[in-house]
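Quick question, first post here. What does this chain look like in 3D?
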Amino acid sequence: MPAPLPPRGKPGDQERPDGPSGGKKPQKRSRWTLWYFLIGLALVLLILWAADHRGREDISYGRFRQLLADGRVSEVVLTSNRVRGTYVPEGETEEQEFEATRPPEDEELPALLQEHVGEDWSYETSWLESPILLWILPLVVLILIWRLVLGRMNPAGGVMDFSQSRASAIAQQDVGVTFDDVAGIEECKQELQEVIEFLRTPSKFTRLGGRIPTGVLLVGPPGTGKTLLAKAVAGEAGVTFYSLSGSDFVEMFVGVGAARVRDLFEQAEKNAPCIIFIDELDALGKARGAGVMGGHDEREQTLNALLVRMDGFQTQKGVILLAATNRPEMLDPALLRPGRFDRQVMVPPPDLKDREAILRVHTREVKTADSVDLKRLAGMTPGFVGADLANLVNEATLLAARRGKNQVHMNDFEDSIERVVAGLEKRNRLMNDEEKNIVAHHEVGHALVACLVPGADPVRKVSMIPRGAAALGYTMQMPTEDRYVLRRNELMDRIGVMLGGRSAEEVVFGEVSTGAQNDLQKATELAREMVIEFGMCDELGPLSYSRRGNQQGDAAEFMAGSRWSERTARKIDEAIREIIEDAHTKALELLHEHRDALLDVAAALKEQEVIEQEDLAAMLAEHGIELPKGPLRRRDEAEGEPQRQSAQESPE
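> Answer (accepted):
Ran it through. Tokens below.
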């Protein structure tokens, strides 16, 4: 999976591109909202208020009464709560305007005015209390709000702007990613390249009577590059490309999702040929009626609208729907039938060759030393997907910069692998001597069992340096090759390695600690898969009791009850216990037989804190234990599934 290049367009530019699709750039329109009107109204009222109070002296009501009693007030105008007029200041001849606040309880003021001013006073209604503000202005505001709502209405959908699709049209020159930037997964690129050819030269495929596929579904685990493939399609297609997420359709308003689907396909039809990309399709296309509480009406209406648009009486020509999901088992069967998503492109985790190519892409802009061997790094990262490899390269670059280097060296990549797999190194976490003794024997127990059984991966490093949130030590194993099939004996050996730490504590100390918690969880889960998924139990027979692939989900499975009887459940528990006990017994026998090697290597680990693969092999050779030069598996055994490097956790 390549590192995406920075887009060459302006940030946030989502205008529809000119190009082969014939689309036009949408014109910008001013967005007048109610807030603009209210701000303008407030400004007008402020101006009127300032004009009404301009040039008047604000005096107290007591002073006004005193001026009135002294006969110095000539004209007075009353309002409901204010008094304004003119008076002659003391020692002057020119009149001055004044204004005062009138208390509502002063009922004798009109009589006083009649006595001192005579007919030169009057009563007025303030413009703030006029019918214009009390009745007409609220009516005008309501009319403006109504006009604003009508202006946002969609005549086709009958819903407001919510019904408009949130898909963004992406121009080819704004993507910056092509198929040359996508490493590995060559088969997937060929499938999508053919889709692009469908749109460019449809006559090449329809001249023999065939039809262009309606939809292509990208399926694969997270981080394998599904979205990056879609970006590459956008960069290669040369047609209008609409991109959005499955969650963009569903809102709290009923009918909005279906209206958005209709609006999206209407836009796509106007700009055909084009491609619509929906990321995380499972948010939109989940199986109808799924879940404990039944289906969600709004989501099901949206899905129904999508089904009709993809293959119905309103099928659009020249529009290909490209979608991505990592949960295909959750999708509605109607989506997956031919005529809708005609093609399902599997995007698997990369193999050894693909991982090397992906690392080569991600290190193009990184200053690496000559000692960096990308092929060896690819062999050290089985199970890593493209996103993991991108993170690995970034961590190594940051680590080299932190160390003050001018280039990224091989040890920086190796340390980054440990950081990604086992967590951040925490040397400041203090342990007493007794805990250090337990951790050392625990980790050497893992490593020794892994070196003695034929089905385990080679041990690369043993460390008792705390890492992550809970691991006080770890044993790192490095698979020698990618594997896709494992035999029962190999699975038993792997369970034995997981239990090697606890077994070492029993052999050396005669009791166990809490350090094997994570080991027991992993061993029990693997044993459970052997019994209920792989059918590796003679008593239960070749049957699968797995719940995987259930579209209704675990909640519906729980409500419906168990898929097997209590007697069968008891047999499953007994079979899991038998597998764990057999692996535990074998690990104990190996450690008792090589107790001296266990004690010597543990003593060296307490002193050195880290033992590399070469040093471990030399120590074990002194006790007559010779490690195989190549893969530890027998050559006549079948190929097995890839396993990510495992960090066996130590006492919490």
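Residues 566-593 form the longest helix (28 residues).
The CA atoms of residues 23 and 117 lie 78 Å apart.
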